[in-house]
Design brief:
Shape: globular
Number of strands: 0
Keywords: Membrane, Transmembrane, Transmembrane helix
Radius of gyration: 17 Å
Order of helices and strands: HHHHHHHHHHHHH
Strand content: under 5%
Structural class: mainly alpha
Largest sheet: none
Number of helices: 13
Helix content: over 70%
Distance between the termini: 23 Å
Protein name: Permease
Subcellular location: Membrane
Pfam family, one: TauE
Low-confidence stretches: 122-128
Membrane topology: Multi-pass membrane protein
Length: about 250
């Protein structure tokens, strides 16, 4: 379920996995363990999404995002040790509420970006993207998303997709595919750090990762063939509900 939803939205699915893993009615994992175990599965979500979105990935931008994200993902994972389980859960809840509007807003952001590019079409075709667009912007996006991925056990796509849509000339599907591809290495980097801290539950992680891989691949194929407008709003509502639950529990 998390793989499908995450791939449709260009995210890792951690927003779905973590609240369910910490639920007393399901796995009842400690908050820190849920974050680390989720990040283990996020790596496979990104890999499957990258395969599903073949032809829609800017590998140069993905590499820049991944390289800077690998560094900051470790810092984000280490930052979780400074927070109690309750504080970490509340921080995740606040982050989910802040991110929720970005999901349905992505299409608007893409449309605005495409209109901006269209008005400057002659300029765009006459010259290649600047080194700022090619390197600096993706590196900056990766630094931010990597830290959030390491800390919250999510893919960071909630930051990457809107940022790529607004700050580069990528279309909607390129932003989705590039985001998923870029999250693989930062997720692995953060997972290694979480594992060293004992925050990856191996009796759960392989099965979670397998399900996330299959769901993400299916979700990426669905995203290329169906109208995702109602899905984006539905996913946003789910994040609001889970975010409020994390804050108020």
């Amino acid at each position: 379920m998390a793989g499908v939803c995450g791939s449709l939205a260009g995210m890792g699915g951690g927003f779905i996995m973590i609240p369910l893993m910490t639920s007393t009615k399901l796995l009842h994992l400690p908050q820190h363990a849920a974050h680390g175990t989720s990040l283990f599965a996020v790596a496979t979500t990104g890999l499957a999404g990258a395969l599903g979105y073949q032809g829609q990935v800017d590998y140069q931008a993905a590499a820049c995002i991944a390289l800077s994200g690998m560094v900051t993902a470790r810092a984000g994972a280490l930052a979780t040790t400074r927070l109690s389980g309750v504080d970490l859960r509340k921080a995740l809840g606040a982050f989910m509420l802040a991110v929720a509007p970005l999901v349905p807003a992505k299409q608007y952001l893409v449309k605005q970006n495409e209109e901006r590019i269209g008005t400057n079409d002659d300029v765009a075709t006459a010259s290649s993207p600047s080194w700022i667009q090619k390197y600096v912007i993706p590196l900056g996006i990766g630094s931010c998303s990597g830290f959030l991925a390491g800390m919250f056990g999510v893919g960071g796509g909630a930051v990457v997709v809107p940022a790529l849509s607004v700050l580069t000339d990528m279309n909607h599907y390129q932003a989705l595919g590039t985001s998923l591809t870029a999250m693989v290495l930062p997720a692995l980097s953060g997972t290694v750090t979480h594992f060293s801290q004992g925050n990856v539950v191996m009796r759960v992680a392989p099965f979670l990762a397998t399900g996330a891989f299959l769901g993400s691949y299916a979700g990426s194929k669905l995203a290329l063939s169906i109208d995702e407008e109602p899905l984006k709003y539905g996913f946003s509502v789910v994040m609001v509900v889970l975010g409020l639950q994390a804050l108020l529990r």
